[in-house]
Amino acid sequence: MNTSIEHISIEKVQQSRLSEVDFDNLTFGNTFTDHMFVCDYKDGVWQDAKIVPYGPLTISPAAKVFHYGQAVFEGMKAYKDDAGDVFLFRPEENFERINKSSKRMAIPEFPKEIFFEALHKLINLDKDWVQGGDGNSLYIRPFVMATQVGVSASPSDEYKFMILCCPVKAYYTGDVRVVIAQEFSRSADGGVGAAKAAGNYGAQFYPTNLAREKGFQQVVWTDSNEHKYLEEAGTMNVFFRIGDKLITAPTSDRILDGVTRKSVLALAERAGIPVEVRKLAVTELLEAAKNGSLKEIFGSGTAAVISPVSAFSYDETVYDIEKQSDSYAARFKKELKEIQYNIQEDPFGWRYPVVTH
Ligand SMILES: *Cc1c(COP(=O)(O)O)cnc(C)c1O
């Protein structure tokens, strides 16, 4: 890993596409900024780190990523405050996690200096694409893929590490209705559920489509052994409020260690909310729904931040969840937002300035 940060070369666009973008009508993840970061792994070294105009790649159809799905990714966001400064939210966590994911997928780890220098340079170059104001942010997608040519089933010896950026609006999901999984699984013991492996998402699409056909948006995943314990909601971690207690599953090799989840736990602790990080059985949830002590379910993840669930289905029975006037979901969403947009103090040190005046 001897690529030094001074070697990130920059090729700027001839003409920015910024003026063509309708920021009021963005579809999540469909609009990309002018530039992207690319770095290649060859001969055992990450090299040729560069920022270039966003655009298509030329890759052999025999590249291993297309055949064996050897690919991982991250999702993070940059937020602009009223003074025009831009902050990332806990980017160290994403850096560590992409390398953890890479390790699980037999992908070489990426050097920290290049990762952060790339983020600084890329976001500064495209800073006008970061819109201020409630809900607006820049979604940042680092990812790694196996580019070695050849369809032999073995780890690639060449990779591309890239970073793309998308301006996004608040990820409005509306009321999320979920189905509790009784047949399909997202991840298994000893599997890749704790990694942000590309294929984890691909594998979720089919069961999620089945849920959609029934009028639900997401699947709440349960343990793959018995479908007895609640684990994640779609591509988010999941929280339950029973009485005044906040309950979420412990991370494991089936459950992804979300940055938003971690942050919600810290905020709950600060607020003196009783928290239980433990397995929650479906039977306990049903019991709580029936006796009225189930007050909230919400998902947590970078894209939607906090996503309240309005109903869940189990054994074809639908259980509605009433809105709470003292909603934990609303409280955490607000507190996170105030830290992310530099509106409130940041006692946890979560904000990471990238563009400063
Ligand atoms: C990315 C992801 C999350 C959320 O993680 P954040 O760091 O909060 O964005 C939760 N579950 C799964 C399966 C994920 O892939």
Task: Explain what you see.
- This protein has 7 helices and 18 strands.
- The chain has 357 residues and is an alpha+beta fold.
- The protein folds into 2 domains: 9-168, 2-Layer Sandwich (D-amino Acid Aminotransferase, Chain A, domain 1); 176-340, Alpha-Beta Barrel (D-amino Acid Aminotransferase, Chain A, domain 2).
- Strands 1, 2, 3, 4, 5, 6, 7, 8 and 18 form a 9-stranded mixed sheet that branches.
- Residues 75, 196, 232, 235-237, 256, 258-261, 300-302 line the site of pyridoxal-5'-phosphate.
Helix and strand element order: EEEHEEEHHEEEHEEEEHEHEEEHE
**Low-confidence runs of at least 5 consecutive residues:** 1-5
Shape annotation: globular
Tell me the distance between the termini: 33 Å
Helicity, as a percent range:
10-25%
Number of helices: 7
Strands, count: 18
CATH superfamily of the largest domain: D-amino Acid Aminotransferase, subunit A, domain 2
Q: What's the Cα radius of gyration?
A: 21 Å
Overall residue-averaged pLDDT value: 96
Number of domains: 2
Q: What can be said about the biggest beta sheet?
A: 9 strands, mixed
Query: What is the CATH topology assignment of the largest domain?
Result: D-amino Acid Aminotransferase, Chain A, domain 2
- What's the architecture of the largest domain in CATH terms? Alpha-Beta Barrel
Strand content: 25-35%
Overall SS class: alpha+beta
Query: Which ligands does the model contain, each kind named once?
Result: pyridoxal-5'-phosphate
- The CATH class of the largest domain is Alpha Beta
